[in-house]
Design brief:
The chain has one helix at about 305-339, and strands at about 20, 25, 35, 55, 65, 70-80, 100-110, 115-125, 130-135, 145-155, 160, 190, 200-205, 210-215, 220, 225-230, 235-240, 245-250, 250-255, 260-265, 270, 280. By secondary structure, the protein is mainly β. It has three domains: about 20-60 and about 225-280, no CATH class; about 65-220, Flagellar hook protein FlgE (Tick-borne Encephalitis virus Glycoprotein, domain 1); about 300-339. The protein has a five-stranded antiparallel beta sheet with strand order 4-3-18-17-16, with no helix packed on it. The protein is elongated. About 25% of the residues are buried.
């Protein structure tokens, strides 16, 4: 109910929370929304105790930075390209020993918001086989020769990528772990170049090699423009520059006897002896309910039935009124006869 660790914890089915002047999400009754804070990888620690929860506050992210941890791209490698002669070894493309047949540069960010240019280069080594290399300026990374990843990439006869560890392994499918020479921290960067047999990442068709789409997260975080809550209970801060960052995970509490909860003002409930102890879990896990963001619960009243009842009770009232009026008239006549 408050910001202190010793404050009472209440439970609610209603989610009408808005940022207050201090940046905390609070409802009109003054209760603060609580959740698990997510780490840089999006994980949280559920101890089963509400003591691990903390009031959700997002404005402390304003003006900070977010390191890149995801790169998604869709590109085509021309199937009719001529295969290079001889084996390709690690660092050949980065050092300029071998000219890439297709190359594209992307900008990624360190934990201080600094920008670093990372290049992806590819050469064809045989039928449905390519060698890829991801590298940066050797002066900006601690990796030897600036090479962050190097390995082969294979394609199916239909042009889709083969990304199956049972068939072969390659650094090109693993996360990038750059070490920046400027001393800034980094997060492991997941490289999304397509799942096994998919056409959503790298493909090999007869058209010219080209980058179709790319998406890189991270960068300097400006002012918060809005707050979003997903159906899975993830609270994200959306900034004015379009960056969205997942910050908190909302829990859902279950009780052995929810009807035994003690009602309190503000559309909230307290745990009681009759309700039993709570269990908090991620929405949808272990019998926990789900969350519906930006949704109002509809009334469970059957309007047609209620209108029918209203007409029935109105007629019964009218009939009762006529009976009372008739009895009153009869009593009046009896009184007049006595006179």
């Amino acid at each position: 109910t408050g910001l202190g660790a010793s404050d009472t914890v209440a439970f609610t089915r209603a989610g009408s929370f808005k940022p207050d002047t201090a940046g905390f999400l609070r409802n009109t009754a003054g209760f603060y929304l609580q959740g698990w804070r997510l780490d840089n990888s999006g994980a949280f620690n559920n101890t089963g105790n509400v003591a691990a929860l903390e009031p959700i506050r997002l404005n402390d992210l304003t003006g900070t930075a977010m390191a890149t941890n995801s790169v998604e791209l869709r590109a085509n490698l021309q199937s009719s390209a001529t295969a290079v002669a001889g084996p390709v070894t690690r660092g050949d493309i980065a050092s300029g020993t071998l000219a890439p047949q297709f190359t594209r540069a992307i900008d990624v960010y360190d934990a201080q918001g600094g920008t670093h240019r990372v290049t992806m280069g590819f050469v064809k080594t045989g039928p449905n086989a390519w060698h890829g290399e991801i590298y940066a300026d050797p002066a900006e990374v601690t990796a030897t020769g600036g090479v962050l990843a190097s390995g082969e990439i294979r394609f199916n006869p239909d042009g889709s990528i083969i990304n199956d560890p049972a068939v072969y392994t390659s650094e090109m499918f693993g996360p990038l772990t750059p070490g920046w020479t400027n001393g800034a921290a980094s997060d492991p960067i997941t490289l999304g170049i397509g799942g096994n047999g998919s056409l959503s990442g790298l493909t090999q068709f007869g058209s010219e090699s080209a980058l179709i789409t790319s998406s890189v997260n991270g960068g300097m975080l400006g002012n918060i423009a809005s707050v979003q809550v997903s159906d899975s209970g993830t609270v994200s801060a959306v900034f004015e520059n379009g960056i969205a960052r997942k910050v908190f995970q909302l829990p859902v509490a279950t009780f052995p006897n929810a009807d035994g909860l003690t009602r309190m003002s503000g559309n909230a409930f307290l745990m009681s002896d009759a309700s039993g102890n709570y269990a908090i879990n991620k929405p949808g896990a272990l019998g926990a309910g789900t969350i519906r963001a930006s949704t109002l619960e509809a009334s469970t009243v059957d309007l047609a039935q209620e209108f029918s009842n209203m007409i029935r009770f109105q007629r019964a009232y009218s009939a009762s009124s006529k009976i009372i009026t008739t009895v009153d008239d009869m009593l009046q006549e009896v009184s007049n006869l006595k006179r």
